[in-house]
Amino acid sequence: MGIPRNETDHEFARWVRARAAEITAAPSGTDTAPAAEPGRVDRALLLRLGDAGLLPALFPGTADDGPLREAPATRLCLLREHLARTDTHAETALALQGLGTYPLLQSGTESQRRRWVPEAAAGRAVAAFALTEPDAGSDAAALALRAEPLGDGWRLHGEKTWISNAPDADFYTVFARTTPGTRSRGVTAFCVPGDRPGLSGSPLEMLSPHALGHLVFDGVEVGPQDVVGIPDQGFTVAMRTLDLFRPSVGAFAVGMADAALAAAMEHTDHRSAFGGPLRRLQTVAHTLAEMATRTEAARLLVYAAAREYDSAGPDVTLKAAMAKLFATETAQYVVDAAVQLHGARALHRGHLLEHLYREVRAPRIYEGASEVQRQIIARHM
After folding, report:
1. Among the residues of the chain, which ranges form H helices?
2. Fewest CB within a 10 Å sphere: which of 54, 131, 321, 361?
3. Would you say 24 and 18 are in contact if contact means Cβ atoms under 8 Å apart?
4. Architecture of domain 236-380
5. Which ranges carry the Acyl-CoA dehydrogenase/oxidase C-terminal domain (predicted)?
6. How far apart are the first and last CA of the chain?
7. Does the pLDDT at position 26 exceed 90?
8. Report field, pTM of the whole predicted structure over 0.85
């Protein structure tokens, strides 16, 4: 399916929604169940995203129209927001492909990019971003996965956990400590194929059934050809990717908030209570107004951060933190308010809002918890 190139953002968003509708089989107002086993990578969904042009839109230039390059942050946000409004499983699958592959796209060697990026863009290879460890989550500079020297390469020893797409990924962007005692300095990024000897893993059962797992590195050998970026500067590789993706986490949250708001408006229009539509009650109308206002404010922050990134502005990190913080906290409020307006029916397994209620919690934690975003904002003020 061809990807539009010169259209407006509005036209691009409409294209995303149309493509998303094509790959979503569930009827309106119900949960979109993954085709794969819960908690494992849905490879069939990734192939559909590739065929629909949605995954290739993350990686412009992977076909025959020029060199490999990253998508503008604004387009990444549009993809995630409008896909989330239709199908959060598809949105998450697309986002994780981007998160795992972008370190190679941004900082990898030509060989790494040619080997993995087109396969990820087509949905044929599954990518993963392996940063978090059992004792290094929000404090990512405290990484302990050891990269012990071995000739001109290294052996990796240690663990990673809460890794999206693990243990099913075909390749991992892994961050390991090559120089002890140096905090954010002394970390190196590696591209590690999933079948590398010594690498094993197991899935984790989560509140929402996403592909998330634990990895064990038992002497996994990596060489200079596996280094992503510059040795001992892997933390910069990670932060470059996260600065791009943090506003798009906010866009994902805005998409969920929009879906919840639309469901609440439809329900309160048609639900009769106290002699008329529920929406005519002042308390209900004011709640809907608050939901709509916060959602729009979150959207504006998200796209302001995206424009800052695309224009190489001086406040990328600050605005990305503000966007992720406000949008994810807003989505939690909006989804919760929509559940309250629906009453017990929203808690029924399979209802759209029951699904969103489980989905909306994690974005306040991953890629930097809300508390971390507040610290980043305070530091940059």
Report:
1. 9-23, 43-51, 54-58, 73-84, 88-107, 110-122, 234-270, 282-310, 316-342, 352-359, 370-380
2. 361
3. no
4. Up-down Bundle (1.20)
5. 232-381
6. 45
7. no
8. yes
pLDDT of residue 29: 40
Local confidence band at 208 (pLDDT 50, 70, 90 cut-offs)? confident
How far from 358 is each of 134, 168, 207, 347, 355, CA to CA, in Å? 23, 23, 6, 11, 5
Domain assignments of the chain as residue spans, ordered by start: 9-125, 129-232, 236-380
Structure tokens at 246: 């943090």
User: Can you say whether residue 53 is alpha, beta or left, with left for phi > 0 and alpha for psi between -120 and 50 degrees?
Assistant: left
8 Å CB contact between 56 and 118: no
Peptide bond into 167 cis (omega under 30): yes
The string of pLDDT tens digits covering residues 120-142 is 999 999 999 999 999 887 776 78
Cα separation, 257 vs 298, whole angstroms: 10
Amino acid at 126: V
| 261 closest CA partner among 329, 352, 364 | 352
* Distance from the Cα of residue 344 to its chain's centroid: 30
Please list the active-site residues: 367
Does residue 264 have a pLDDT over 80? yes
Q: pLDDT class for 31, splitting at 50, 70, 90? A: very low
CATH class of 129-232: mainly beta
Among candidate residues 160, 167, 129, the one with its CA nearest the CA of residue 143:
160
Query: Concatenated DSSP letters for 190-248?
Result: EEEETT-TTEEEEE---SS---EEEEEEEEEEE-GGGEESSTTBHHHHHHHHHHHHHHH
Q: Could you tell me the two tokens for 130?
A: 């392996």
| Residue (of 291, 260, 264, 244) closest to 359 by Cα position | 260
Question: What is the rounded average pLDDT of the residues 342-367?
Answer: 93
The CATH homologous superfamily of the domain defined by 9-125: Acyl-CoA dehydrogenase/oxidase, N-terminal domain (1.10.540.10)
Q: With 60 as the cut, is the pLDDT of residue 64 above it?
A: no
